Amino acid sequence: MTVIGLDDTDSRERGMCTTFVAATLAERVEAAGASVDRRVLARLNPGVEHKTRGNAALAVHTDLDPKRARELAVEHLDLAETADPRTNPGVVVAPGEPSAVPDAVAAFARDAVRDYHDIDDAVALADRAGYEHAHAGNGRGRIGALAAVGAWRAFDDWTCECISYRERDRWGTDREVDRESVFAAADAASPDAWDTVDRGEGYPVCVPRTPCPILHGIRGDDSSTVRGVAEAIDGEPVASRALFVTNQGTDAHLRRVDGFADASEGRAYRVDGKVVAEPETREGGHVFAALRSADGETAEVAAFEPTKRFRDRVRALRVGDRLTVCGEVSDGTLKLEKFAVRELVRTEPANPECPDCGRSMGSAGAGQGYRCRDCGTSADGKVAVPVERDIERGWYEVPPCARRHVAKPLVRGGFDAPVHPER
């Protein structure tokens, strides 16, 4: 067996897509008489500055001879948008079974989703493992390529994506996709296929808005479901389709920490805390709340405007609520992807009512409790009264239109509290 890893072939402005490069490379491998066991789409750290869009790295698992695999992969880098100086493709070719990569390579892949790597570290590790590699530009893509090589051993939770590609002469033009067929196919396959549409926004999430070769990408838990949804969507002709196994929708990027003192910039965490300041809506419609973790550190958590109706969930919080929050730390603020309400404040302090007339008592003076000015009755202090809440215990998430590729949708299950999925 041989694993071909590749990364950083696309451009934010000029288009292309590394999944397309991998899919067409797999076609060339098969044309050379070899078989392809699988195509792997590994989403890496979404906080990396140099990413293009979803920070995807790709791998092709094949029985092609490693030397011939390297030749084909290097030739195939011609598809990379190297006219963009920020596109720096890389290829790593590893002989052997994908599940038998060295421990260090698997650890490198896990860290690539949760942390950062240097080019020199990737090259040194590839050399120690005896892997062939090639690159263009500064070769930053070798980081993702090596991570893609190690991904199959690094992760246990895998999902699927069926990607349909456009005819080449349509690249960069408006996509022709029948909206009604997208929503009908999504409804029929839910919840096994997820994030196909955002029903709240009336938006087909599976259809990109970039000048890349993709017509639509369908995500779900098994290959037959995602392929069936893709085939049920009407629109412009499909040039080709490719099925990928992927760590999308798995929360592989989240790291559990005890408190905000252990959280660093550009990384994603799961942390428990208590709301210590009322939520505040700021300029641009972004909603912020302050949370104190068990270590005594306080940090702001935020639901930004693109998360749409999710912001109402944050606005519904009150001081004293206990939460588990998930998201990336950026500029000292944790950008919420989902959160769980563990405990809700159910009462609030209020002036006591007079037992005789039922009116609210007023303060009798500093340290003197409360008194009814009409009846003369008194009480020692405020009383707890029930408060209605617009939120319940359990997990809440951003809508599909705002979800990061690697973030796990609630419909996939496995959460430790009731879930309130977005559709």
Automatic annotation (TrEMBL):
Q: What coarse category fits the chief subcellular location reported for this protein?
A: cytoplasm
Cellular localisation: Cytoplasm
> Which controlled-vocabulary keywords does the entry list?
ATP-binding, Cytoplasm, Ligase, Nucleotide-binding, tRNA processing
EC number annotated for this UniProt entry = 6.3.4.22
Domain named TiaS C-terminal zinc ribbon: which ranges? Answer: 351-391
Q: Which InterPro entries match?
A: TiaS-like_TCKD, TiaS_FLD, tRNA_Ile2__agm2C_synt, Zn_ribbon_TiaS
Q: Which is a Gene Ontology cellular component entry for this protein?
A: cytoplasm
Kindly list the biological process annotations in GO that this record carries: tRNA wobble cytosine modification
Q: Which Pfam families match?
A: TiaS_FLD, TiaS_TCKD, Zn_ribbon_TiaS
Domain of life (superkingdom): Archaea
Using the record's annotation, list all stretches that form the TiaS-like TCKD domain: 3-61
Catalyzed reactions: cytidine(34) in tRNA(Ile2) + agmatine + ATP + H2O = 2-agmatinylcytidine(34) in tRNA(Ile2) + AMP + 2 phosphate + 2 H(+)
Q: Which CDD domains does this chain map to?
A: RPA2_OBF_like (cd04482)
Q: Which family does it belong to?
A: Belongs to the TiaS family.
This one is known as tRNA(Ile2) 2-agmatinylcytidine synthetase TiaS
From what organism does this protein derive? Halosimplex rubrum
What broad taxonomic lineage does this protein's source fall under? Archaea, Methanobacteriati, Methanobacteriota, Stenosarchaea group, Halobacteria
Identify the coding gene. Answer: tiaS
